[in-house]
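Sequence design from tokenized structure. All designs in this work follow the same two-part layout: the structure record, then the generated sequence. An example of the structure record is given first.
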């Protein structure tokens, strides 16, 4: 059978262990740092998980240490009781058509299509996993979808919802108001506005959280910056300038060991490594033109990077901190946003400029299907997925 890895990965033991908890509170774990490599922090999600996985972290300072895996609750089969009765479906927001296409992942057929607000950008699972929210950016609404039926409900007015996240404790919804250059703090159920934070940059759109959940690292596409948001104080603590003369940072993803943020840069054609403690830019991993979406494999070993301009997906090893394979779309394409299937065997990505959805086999990297959808497909959600809670975007689970 054809395999996608271009080099043999060393065998290593994955050990199941009981995660350290103190009466449901957050526990921090720290590992050493040195020699210019990433510092190590670790987090336990706000709701106690049943178990954690011990993994080999990135090498640093000539030493290796075990740490709690951020994505320990995202393994195949680890579906929350909340979602176990939901049908497995793929929800595709078509930005240029103002529609959502619903795909059956077993047959690869579009089984439903419905209208939503103007310019839907992403389909975002709620923190409690019970609702999917279509972000109608120009329509200034959020359309709820009931994942038990796959059907939409009545839209809620929300200004400029380009993207949507939830704090790890589930207490606050974070709306990325991209064109308004604002981060809006809202009620996670009603979406009533609590507070707005003006950004010192342009085009806030994607983000992820530090392990302890206290800090939000967000990308600003149009000005080429990253912003560090102190969530407790609701203040911008730092602006990170990326190296180079022209940057377009996109998706942000925390490494499994919690020590590094990976930030896709569409203009530079790769991903930046940013230390999660100091927010210092530590290095760059070249992947391909238009590096855009970032997705962690179900075993936490690799990061899938969609290269929208190159028409490819790069497979970046967390341990090696470099690509170990490239999957190319025959004839080219525009792979954008998406997610990994619940069993980890498929990577689903929209073809932003080709009106299709791509399905890759994560075992050998070949393109399984191209599924026609409406115009401008963007941030699709594969649902349900393993995890205790959703932190937003197209499915960032802890």
């Amino acid at each position: 059978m054809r395999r996608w890895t271009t080099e043999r990965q060393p065998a290593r033991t994955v050990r199941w262990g009981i995660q350290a908890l103190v009466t449901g509170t957050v526990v921090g774990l720290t590992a050493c740092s040195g020699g210019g490599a990433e510092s190590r922090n670790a987090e336990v999600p706000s709701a106690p998980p049943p178990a954690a996985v011990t993994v080999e972290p990135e090498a640093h300072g000539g030493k290796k240490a075990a740490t709690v895996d951020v994505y320990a609750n995202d393994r195949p089969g680890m579906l929350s009781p909340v979602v176990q009765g939901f049908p497995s479906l793929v929800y595709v927001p078509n930005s240029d058509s103002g529609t959502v296409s619903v795909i059956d992942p077993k047959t690869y057929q579009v089984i439903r299509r419905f209208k939503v607000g103007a310019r839907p950008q992403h389909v975002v699972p709620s923190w409690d996993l019970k609702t999917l929210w279509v972000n109608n950016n120009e329509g200034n609404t959020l359309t709820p979808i009931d994942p038990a039926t796959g059907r939409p409900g009545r839209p809620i007015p929300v200004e400029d919802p380009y993207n949507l996240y939830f704090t790890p404790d589930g207490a606050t919804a974070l709306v990325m108001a991209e064109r308004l250059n604002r981060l809006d703090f809202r009620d996670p159920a009603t979406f009533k506005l609590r507070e707005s934070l003006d950004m010192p940059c342009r085009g806030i759109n994607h983000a992820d959280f530090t392990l302890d959940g206290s800090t939000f690292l967000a990308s600003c596409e149009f000005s080429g910056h990253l912003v560090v948001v102190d969530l407790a104080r609701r203040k911008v603590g730092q602006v990170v300038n990326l190296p180079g003369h022209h940057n377009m940072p996109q998706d942000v993803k925390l490494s499994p060991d919690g020590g590094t943020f990976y930030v896709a840069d569409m203009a530079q054609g790769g991903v930046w490594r940013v230390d999660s403690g100091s927010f210092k830019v530590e290095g760059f991993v070249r992947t391909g033109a238009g590096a855009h979406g970032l997705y962690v494999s179900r075993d936490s070993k690799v990061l899938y990077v969609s290269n929208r301009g190159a028409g490819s997906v790069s497979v970046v090893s967390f341990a090696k901190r470099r690509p170990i394979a490239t999957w190319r779309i025959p004839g080219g394409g525009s792979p954008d946003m998406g997610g990994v299937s619940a069993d980890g065997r498929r990577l689903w990505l929209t073809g932003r400029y080709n009106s299709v959805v791509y399905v890759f086999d994560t075992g050998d990297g070949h393109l399984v299907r191209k599924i026609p959808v409406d115009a401008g497909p963007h941030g699709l959600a594969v649902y349900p997925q393993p995890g205790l809670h959703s932190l937003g975007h197209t499915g960032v689970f802890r």
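The chain is about 0% helix and 45% strand. We note this feature because it recurs in several other targets discussed in the main text.
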